[in-house]
Amino acid sequence: MSESVVAAVSYEFGRTEVAEIPMPDISDDAGLLRVEMTGVCGSDWPYYQKYPGTKGPLILGHEPVGRVETLGRIARDRFGVKEGDRVALEEYLPCGHCKYCRSGDFRLCDATDTLNRPDAVRYGSTPISRAPSLWGGYSRFQYLHPNSVFHRVPDHVPAKQATLALPLGNGVEWAYLQGKARIGEAVVIQGPGQQGLACVVAAKEAGASCIIVTGLSTPADERRLALAKQLGADYTVNVDKVNLFDAVKDATGGEMADLVIDCASGGTETVVSAINLARKSGRIIMGGRKFKKIPEFDSDVLISRFLTVKGMRGHSWDAVELGLGIIASGRYALDGMCTHTFPLAEVDQALRTVGGQGLPGAIHCTVSPWE
Amino acid sequence: MSESVVAAVSYEFGRTEVAEIPMPDISDDAGLLRVEMTGVCGSDWPYYQKYPGTKGPLILGHEPVGRVETLGRIARDRFGVKEGDRVALEEYLPCGHCKYCRSGDFRLCDATDTLNRPDAVRYGSTPISRAPSLWGGYSRFQYLHPNSVFHRVPDHVPAKQATLALPLGNGVEWAYLQGKARIGEAVVIQGPGQQGLACVVAAKEAGASCIIVTGLSTPADERRLALAKQLGADYTVNVDKVNLFDAVKDATGGEMADLVIDCASGGTETVVSAINLARKSGRIIMGGRKFKKIPEFDSDVLISRFLTVKGMRGHSWDAVELGLGIIASGRYALDGMCTHTFPLAEVDQALRTVGGQGLPGAIHCTVSPWE
Amino acid sequence: MSESVVAAVSYEFGRTEVAEIPMPDISDDAGLLRVEMTGVCGSDWPYYQKYPGTKGPLILGHEPVGRVETLGRIARDRFGVKEGDRVALEEYLPCGHCKYCRSGDFRLCDATDTLNRPDAVRYGSTPISRAPSLWGGYSRFQYLHPNSVFHRVPDHVPAKQATLALPLGNGVEWAYLQGKARIGEAVVIQGPGQQGLACVVAAKEAGASCIIVTGLSTPADERRLALAKQLGADYTVNVDKVNLFDAVKDATGGEMADLVIDCASGGTETVVSAINLARKSGRIIMGGRKFKKIPEFDSDVLISRFLTVKGMRGHSWDAVELGLGIIASGRYALDGMCTHTFPLAEVDQALRTVGGQGLPGAIHCTVSPWE
Amino acid sequence: MSESVVAAVSYEFGRTEVAEIPMPDISDDAGLLRVEMTGVCGSDWPYYQKYPGTKGPLILGHEPVGRVETLGRIARDRFGVKEGDRVALEEYLPCGHCKYCRSGDFRLCDATDTLNRPDAVRYGSTPISRAPSLWGGYSRFQYLHPNSVFHRVPDHVPAKQATLALPLGNGVEWAYLQGKARIGEAVVIQGPGQQGLACVVAAKEAGASCIIVTGLSTPADERRLALAKQLGADYTVNVDKVNLFDAVKDATGGEMADLVIDCASGGTETVVSAINLARKSGRIIMGGRKFKKIPEFDSDVLISRFLTVKGMRGHSWDAVELGLGIIASGRYALDGMCTHTFPLAEVDQALRTVGGQGLPGAIHCTVSPWE
């Protein structure tokens, strides 16, 4: 094996450079992944803005697909994969023994919950100062920590689509496993980005009979809304032009939505609209963080209309397996979501593009480390 | 049968008078209840302030217990009770054929949802101008509308306790059926009034191992918190004296609450504390209306900690049956909740007492129409 | 209105005759349905063999679609439909007040459970000796009992397909609401008759990714299996020619079935195969009655493989609504299921055909009373 | 550390001898438990009869409680416990990466499922020929395999009661997590052995209001039924003297049981009675294996009465945690279950006693390896 690994290291916001990281020794309970391609998550953008400053230089990227290159003696038993297997990795590195891990909810494990525990370890969020540095997917090789979580990826799935495993897993988790979209239901999805589109696919698979996706009057959103229709949305609503409440009322014959999923980030108005669009006894999944308070929030509306609001992020193991099954089936035109691929040397551009400040038209972007 | 019915009619806020209402003819699909005793619900206070003005004079009271006096020919088949049976009535008069009624969730039925439909019909909320006037429990007889919902009450249950059927039904609904309190869980109940105490009993029945009830530094709350302990609470917290977050942290060994139930009315701070007291992936039941916005509400906390917030009011049929089963078992010292009983002539005082402006020490008050 | 109703009365097994039944007076809480078309249920065959002897002459048929002709004064409020509305009726006439009715499970209501209560009343199972005689759908008019359960049928749905409301409701109930078929699952359906095909549709809607239907080497089953494929089955298995266990093993990559639904009647071997085809922790829905003991049943297999076996018949209100939604969507080639339509004069032939002793190729047969 | 471990090795059925096993080297990902006490499971009796012959000599016992003696470098991170911690161990050694392990259902993992996979590894079921031999709890030390599953045991819990962690975990799993016993329900438990009594405790915790336990006319069962009452049973039934169906009918006011749990082994009649005792739509948990077919089994009864039959064995992690919480609470007189304690030299007698061929009066027996 070569003596160093070529990787894109983000030294500060705006400065990511291709560097050579010494090839680490792999301990008995660890391994190494040869990265084939890595998805650029929407969260990479705020990570990029924040982590180099607070944590130090790091290799971003936590949606890798690749082949197992090396396995330590103990890892061979423990990982359930063998050298050469094609896999997608989760970003989580759960402890394996807490109550959440033991009950199947390992994404709640404190050991990998970087949002609640600043010192938690997670792929794509851990600095190179922490040995063995190779914590990110924007690299030719990624370290396989003893607590890595694997999913098998069939050979016939194109790499770009395979890197949708986690985003689609999120869609399955939010719309189906947590949102409980079911046959015949009306589902509103606010925000037509990668996450919203993944929810469209999951709601469609679940048999929802009326899927409504909202977006803005931007060229980007117009393309995304068109794609939403291809993926199974029954209606799309440009909220800059149309009264959203009335549109949902019309589309549902006055019944309003059984489930509303808020995938929009930043603005507080989608929290309020999510609540207003739900039918009596409806469910609301809050997925997009706002980074501010919601002064218009009225808890009495939850009471008077028996509403459930559930905050959600990430995915269960099961959700990712279901997502990969959907990808592998070929039933959805997921290629339409895969808009841009960047070499390692252009990770800065990849990140800016996902952050809305680079190339236009981004939905699902990937980094291809061997190009 | 006598030619008129003695009832307490609320003509305007502050003026309730005993009046004689003509005994109505009972149609084939209706009946008449001889009221034994009626509970005074916390909601009677805002109803009293509002409905005489907006709807006109009415007989309040929607937690009656009594015996079936008369049944029309059709009602005999339809009600599932016979003359002489001792019953508790629900306040709801559901249509019986909408999707909510057909699926067992009849409290969501538009026909009886006075909060969302001003013209809906419900016991204790309907004016005397609507025939046959006898819509309330503060009366010697109450009309049995064709859509009445009955629960049987065993003869051995004292009337005062039997009128706890609906409040305890709410406790079972909020803490157990919706809140899903289960064996070994930590449950925080904010607000030690009748509703909070009912949640204590339900959580105890469900096997919760750590029940914490909060209250204020008032003589009323001090008595209620002492009663909470008798009913099964493990800890009580006076939030005026003790840091609530720390108290819950200590009581739960740092784990925080699996379930928080907000039964407090008015102040917005309990919405915020409910969210802060829940463990990662915990559940919050919002039961107490605030009549104002919650400017400190931060939806990102729901997301970062995977929280579920569920607005709730009222009860299912099953919840009331379970509540009556608990009452009938005699396992809980429910007599301690039954603080005051008033004759019809003192319904004004009864309402003020429940509204915090009458006699001190009220928890569960009743009106006894034959005294 | 005319003074008599033209109906097909089954006087004894093998002798159904068109007769004129006096037009009944309709009481205040009842009504009359003008029948457009009625489905012939598989259960009509055993009913035909048994009920004329045990109960006396009766009008069979309990899957009617039609328009409300007349409504009594009370029924107008109670039924949730108005004169002229197009509806499908359930066969159940639930009491409305027992614990099952109050919780949405009205098909369990003793009042309409003819299997457990011989004196229960149900459409298509009640003799003409019980007033007002018009209890069955093989008639131009059907009595609307006060406890009738309605579903609205959109005008654009062809009558033949609309009479699939109950069979498809069963499919939704068995495969989805009770069987809990979900995204990505492998579902085996034993028996390709009307009920099995309805399960195919429901499993497909639910996102099952591997649907396997079994049948025999008969011309009838060969046609049905071909139709199963059109409706969404991934595999069909002729159990006379192929080893079923191996076929399921192959189709599922060795995982076996998450859910097995037994829609086959008569033979005991499908009980045993259902259990053997389920994966560890799998679910089995038993829908087809055998009328004999199962000597090969081994409860230890349930224990060693954590299996759940659930006996099921009929449908919930929700299931029929979902079924009608699927029919109305036009997404499935349900016309292929509608094989034969008979006039009233040929009800004997219709029943024999469904019983396998009349015309060949029957799947869903209907009776059209005005032809 | 000493150079050998004193352990009771079962060489053949009827011949268990205290032997010295060489103290193994502990690899980085493993550890060693100093056994304080080990429960004798009912399954030890058939294991004893079978495994020495089919697998070779082994140390039986899979319900140990003790303190962590040694931990390898990797195990220190992975086990979530540290040296000196007091723990109960599960018998399972799940792989950690299969779909069952990843979803929290690790007892279904093939790697530890000795019933379906003869070569699976599990504590108390693995021969000494497999290194490092110390697979059983009837020993002063037990090997801590890398996949060990731990539960913390508070210091104040007596060792005898602590060894009830797994049996009580089974009770919680069967009666509560899988059987879904809930407030107000009637639960019949067939068989008053350790497992049945654990179900009594779990059903009581769950709020069941009518718990009925059945047994035979033997002195052993009479003692057990008396203990059942102390633990919370409302009724006990000697099926040799009383008609069980009638007894359940009387106790439930004719409603029959919401849940029946069959903890009886051997006889097929309890399968049939379990089904007959359940109310319409009731649930049946089959926990006791019969080692023969059930010729009287009638699947039509499941269909006509909407019954669910679920085969069950073992426990989830959550169930054991809840069980330990119940033990630690001291709310139940569990000391009454702890009938016999044996030193290592009397493991043969301990096994015979649990198998019904040794000392009389056994319920929960333990082996104390340092006495």
Portion of residues in beta strands of chain A equals 15-25%
Q: Distance between the terminal alpha carbons of chain A, to the nearest Å? A: 19 Å
What percent of the residues of chain A sit in helical stretches (DSSP H or I)? Answer: 25-40%
Total discrete domains of chain A? 2
In DSSP terms (H or I, runs of 4 or more residues), the helix count of chain A works out at: 12
Low-confidence stretches of chain A: none
List the main descriptive attributes of the protein structure presented here.
2 domains; Rossmann fold; Quinone Oxidoreductase, Chain A, domain 1; six-stranded parallel sheet; 371 residues; alpha/beta; homotetramer; seven-stranded mixed sheet; 12 helices
List strands and helices in order, with pairings.
4 copies of one chain form a homotetramer.
Chain A: E1 4-12, E2 15-22, E3 31-40, H1 44-55, E4 63-71, H2 73-78, E5 86-89, H3 99-102, E6 141-144, E7 150-152, H4 159-162, H5 165-178, E8 186-190, H6 194-205, E9 210-215, H7 219-231, E10 235-238, H8 244-251, E11 257-262, H9 269-277, E12 278-286, H10 299-304, E13 308-311, H11 317-329, E14 338-343, H12 347-354, E15 364-368
Parallel strand pairs in A: 8-9, 8-11, 9-10, 11-12, 12-13, 14-15
Antiparallel strand pairs in A: 1-2, 3-4, 3-6, 3-15, 4-5, 5-7
Helix pairs in contact in A: 5-6, 5-11, 6-7
